[in-house]
Predict the 3D structure of the following.
Amino acid sequence: MADTFQLEIVTPEKKLVDTAATEVQIPGKNGYLGILPGHAPLITELAVGEITFHAGAEQQRLAVAWGFAEVLPDKVTILAETAERPAEIDVERARKAKERAEQRLASGDPNVDVERSLDALAKAETRLEVAGSKK
């Protein structure tokens, strides 16, 4: 069995990752999935969350929101609606988005789209976490 698999992470705008990896964790719709070389084939829907993967000796992180992942024994392809490296995240913008989502959820306004507000909150919190700024 191989020690690595090919990992590709693609958004509609660009290919973010194309590397040999030894492990990846992805936010599946029903929870996180850990993938190692030789994993059984599967296709899963992505949720909002953090992708972590090991390429060589270093661990890398990405904030991701929605999409799909195809897992094969020797390749993992992630098609994400959005994905950002820590350096690409605008922390101030993410903080403001988090505050807006929290205000909408706390408002008690019956016209607030709660599901959309919860998604916005999760995305902002993930972006802050990946950027290394939890506040």
Remarks:
- The two ends are 43 Å apart (CA to CA).
- Strands lie at 5-10, 15-21, 23-28, 31-35, 42-46, 49-55, 58-72, 75-84.
- The mean pLDDT is 93.
- Residues 25 and 34 are 4 Å apart (CA to CA).
